[in-house]
Amino acid sequence: MRRSKKYSRPVRPLNIEAAMGGVHHERGRDGTDYKVHHISAGSKQYVCPGCNGIILVGEAHEVVWTEDTIWGAQYGIDSRRHWHTSCWKHRGR
Ligand SMILES: [Zn+2]
Question: What are the phi and psi torsion angles at 27 (to 5°)?
């Protein structure tokens, strides 16, 4: 089989930031650039990866993701997690 020529994949415009607004960046201790979006009232229940506890519907929390993954930005966005605000702030301690 002929090897297909390697094209650099076109960068898909990421509208998630524009759609969500209020996203800020945080540099993790491992050097990873995280994006953090504060949700003032969640519309769903989530499990926080920091404490494995439940984030209740209507509870303020943080949505965190990174576009800095070996599988690309979209993978990072698709893998975003919902954290309790305090768990995110105190992670890794
Ligand atoms: Zn938590």
Answer: -90, 120
